[in-house]
Amino acid sequence: MTLMFDSSLITYAVSLHFGREVNEIIYSAMKKIAEQTGNSFMLENKVPPHITIGAFHAAKEDERKLLGLVEDFTRGQQAGSVQFCEVGNFNNKVLFLRPEKNNFLTKINAELHNLLLPIFSKAENGYYLPDIWFPHTTLATGLNPSQFEKTLQIAGEITLPLDAAIGELAVYQCSPFEELQKYILK
Questions:
Q1: Do the beta carbons of residue 136 and residue 97 sit within 8 Å?
Q2: Nearest alpha-carbon partner for 94 in 48, 51, 134, 142
Q3: FRET partner for 135 with CA separation of 20 to 30 A, picked from 6, 13, 87, 160?
Q4: DSSP states of 150-181
């Protein structure tokens, strides 16, 4: 039996945000990629540098409930940090920075899913589920082969390893992309 996607559901993403200095480094690379390749998807859609820790489907009328649960969840979470260790890609179409999957990331991802999955369904083919999640920070997406080569050069200018403090968590509506709420981690 194949489950059909309910098109009335909205995809919501929960993401971590970096401190100002690292945010500027990543945003600068995203901007340079857009300028040199013409691929400006990340900038046009106002997608900030982030690590997505979960994606869930919910009906619009359940949005307030989802935001309330994430707000309660955030109150129990400590700020953390990650170390970006390499540049990676998905099928030469998405270029990203890969952080080490440390205890902070593993714990916050698992706890978010433990809280939300009993109520909301997984989104994005389950790519953010704790057992298969691959944390990353996208620099560019939807790349063609010539754009990909240029983005590799630009990403190579980022000095790695790069330590990043994480002090915020945000909830986004996807397609169209819109920040709904941002929370400060303790």
A1: yes
A2: 142
A3: 6
A4: HHHHHHTTS-SSEEEEEEEEEEEETTTTEEEE
Q: pTM for this structure? A: 0.93
Kindly report, residue by residue over 101-125, the tens digit of the pLDDT: 999 999 999 999 999 999 999 997 8
Q: How far apart, in whole angstroms, are the C-alpha atoms of residue 100 and residue 89?
A: 15
Q: What is the DSSP letter of 49?
A: S
**Count of CB atoms situated within 10 Å of the CB of 40:** 14
Rounded to the nearest 5°, which phi and psi values hold at 80?
-150, -165
The strand pairing partners of 143, in sequence order, are: none
Low-confidence stretches of the chain (pLDDT < 70) are: 1-7
Q: How far apart are CA 19 and CA 168, in angstroms?
A: 8
